[in-house]
Amino acid sequence: MGLFERYLSVWVGLAIVLGVILGNLWPDLFALVAAVEYAHVNLVIAVLIWVMIYPMMVQIDFAAVKDVRKSPKGLVLTLVVNWLIKPFTMAMLGWLFFKVLFVEWVDPQTATEYIAGMILLGVAPCTAMVFVWSQLTKGDPNYTLVQVSVNDLIMVVAFAPICAFLLGVSDIQVPWETLLSSVFLYVVLPLVAGVLTRRKLESDGDPASLARFVGNLKPWSIVGLLATVVLLFGFQAGTILEQPQNIMLIAIPLLIQTYGIFFIAYYAAKKLKLSHKVAAPACMIATSNFFELAVAVAISLFGLHSGAALATVVGVLVEVPVMLSLVAFVNRHKTQFEDDTGEHPAVS
Length: 348
Hints:
Radius of gyration: 20 Å
Strand content: under 5%
Number of strands: 2
Largest sheet: 2 strands, antiparallel
Oligomer: single chain
Structural class: mainly alpha
Order of helices and strands: HHHEEHHHHHHHHHHHHH
């Protein structure tokens, strides 16, 4: 691991600070960038995420995707945590903190909206960024693709009913354009580009050309991540400085939820005796959120300046540094998982 990757959390921290500073110095510029969107999907962010996940898509070997059925436990783990545990623990934590522990600091209407925003995050499993977390933990790209694809299919039919049940409303409107456009931009388009690139490299007759190409792209993947962080924090710079106490109140249960869900998945992965390359993306997919969809639904249901919208935005702010800490944890403890031979890998 190179010096830049070794201290990635430091560079992300600097990117967060830079984003807040630039967002306050040039708010009009960031507002202009934020306005470049379709169906609540920011196209500039979409391009940067595309840059992040394209190198991993190139590594996907469709001939090996069929082998996923030989290890179904990782897929089952992801689905159980994402759809049977995560939404309900998020709702429970939201109620506990904003109806009991923080009741003296937040008015009832705002508290209800905060809980709603948290629920929307909990019911939206990650689609795009998880490819980055999987790559950073050296997860199996083929397995990650299958996990994300199955999650997306379930999300199409399960997102609205679970939201309706937990929010206590029956007329929730899912922004289908946002959902479908995000899947197309973050999964389908880079996947097609990756497959075509891989075929071209394999047809050249040089077995090492694929590894060289991916190695050359790797720095751009990190640049895409840092640029995304700068923009996300630049977009919300005003809110961060104007409402630091509210952001802190929302961040506390979100942090507990994120770390709690991760360790549920991590413990289960160990009990299921998954290999590291399957366990790592399984834990990451179970932990991260599809924040673009959550933000879009919060805005459409409760309004742009609602507590629900703010809660989903705080979810964005919390996720990147938290997920990086979990990536570091998984990589430090990879010897606790078995490899494909059923043995624990030696410490290197």
